[in-house]
Amino acid sequence: MSTQFAVTDEFxxxxxxxxxxxxxxxxxxxxxxxxxxxxxCSPDAAPxxxxxxxxxxxxxxxxxxxxxxxxxxxxxxxxLVTGETxxxxxxxxxxxxxxxARAKRPFVRVNCGALAEGLVASExxxxxxxxxxxxxxxxxxxxxxxxxxxxxxDEVGELPPALQxxxxxxxxEGEFERVGGTETxxxxxxxxxxxxxxxxxxxxxxxFRSDLLFRLNVFPIAMPPLRERKDDIPSxxxxxxxxxxxxxxxxxxxxxxxxxxxxxxxxxxxxxRELQNVVERAVILxxxxxxxxxDFELPNLGSEVxxxxxxxxxxxxxxxxxxxxxxxGRVYGAEGAAETLGVPASTLESRIRRLGIDKHAFRRRAPxxxxxxxxxxxxxxx
Length: 382
Prior knowledge:
Number of domains: 2
Strand order of the largest sheet: 5-8-11-4-12
CATH class of the largest domain: Alpha Beta
Order of helices and strands: EHEEHHEHEHEEHEHEEEHHEHEHHEHHH
Structural class: alpha/beta
Shape: elongated
Radius of gyration: 26 Å
Helix content: 25-40%
Number of helices: 15
Distance between the termini: 21 Å
């Protein structure tokens, strides 16, 4: 039988666990921040820190990440977060800052890859008035602003060689000078760096200093890509469905089984960021209480041919029969089996003929749900 992945408003207010469903379990977690004394969180608070910062998931890979976050947050150690684009590296940095004794001090983000090479030094270390064309006044740099707090150096592998030397000095001595200045300034900013590139390879190619890599890589945290933590996809999809349903003032009770199976089968090259965008779009397009397969505009969703090396999410015959059962044998039209599966009706008809399925047999079956106003066998979380 078909099972709906459902969420309800009661979950939002009660904070109780969702329990087990076929693909993932959403855990009840309580937001844990540092207490009034400013003491850092314990490793036991790792799942709570993750949910607070949007890092939803209970896979073994994600639990290992959150445990490392909780342990290093209580220290002042430099952290290097690695992982593909869209895996949530900035969320890790923010969680480390929030779980530390520096939480009430500034968190300063710098995207090293987005700055023009001539402006990187000024952004990081500031400049004196008249030090270059356009420098009409003294300006503090990010390290100076982040003093006592945390500075997040995103895409640190993009730093030009001259700035790598200056960054190494800050990490070793906590010292720097503003551009055009002679005064040596001190900073007590904790550094969390991130990259989606292999810095080891960059060192071998002479594009990154090995001594800087050693200083940055005191405590490494590797973010797994979403394709390696597929057990978390239902939890993440439901998390964003609730979030955007509230924002758009729409009542979304869950994700249909065919849509969830397709989300699980997709390789997610853009990782969590891509999934977030896809769910937001689905909530915008949704016309019913459940997000269905057509709402998720994603390449190859509902495709007959699976990707190489990728298992089909469910037996094709079973998937079609479940859709026909839900539609009582109807292929075409609103709420027909073709719409449920997200494929053209003519394509579904050819698959039905190829598999020898008698669609008329499903018309003689009794409806799965009578006057209950909800999806067949829906798991409604209370």
